[in-house]
Description:
The structure holds two protein chains of two kinds. Chain A is mainly β. Chain A has no helices and eleven strands.
Amino acid sequence: KQEVTQIPAALSVPEGENLVLNCSFTDSAIYNLQWFRQDPGKGLTSLLLIQSSQREQTSGRLNASLDKSSGRSTLYIAASQPGDSATYLCAVAPSGSARQLTFGSGTQLTVLP
Amino acid sequence: KAGVTQTPRYLIKTRGQQVTLSCSPISGHRSVSWYQQTPGQGLQFLFEYFSETQRNKGNFPGRFSGRQFSNSRSEMNVSTLELGDSALYLCASSLESQGLEQYFGPGTRLTVT
């Protein structure tokens, strides 16, 4: 059974700092890995999708990497802003059931002005 | 293009009642998945529908059911509600050609009293 772990559970940083969020998974037979952002009481916003054959994806100040063999992904946020404050979730889709996502418990990020 | 919409956004029900939640996917998306989010269990996969057929089902009791219509809209039903069913219910839609990236709706907040 796939298990996804995110460390740390919470993170507080001053504005402008670069930061890294970590995600690990136990079963490397994945189809893709997706990073989401969730604001309090709201739905999920897709940030980046990495296919199993890819090593990284970039969008603006965000960069996500994937090391399938070691079961790890990182989300790098450059020059953090208060508007980046949210919970960040990673989710893996297994080979064969690509829409059945298994989620980590998230990292709650606070960027202080 | 309109995003995933869910109705109602908020719902209060009493134990023992049943409830039906609705999800309209992004136009052209034929896959709809449902997830339950609670503080204790996090985000858990309920089921996925594609072309009116259930393709995958998570580990939830039979009180949780769903269906999909020919226009890809989906409904999920929970019968004999329990206090533990209080949660944010999220649906997501995806398109085959986009690497199965999932797009989430804002969710329905269900409170069972």
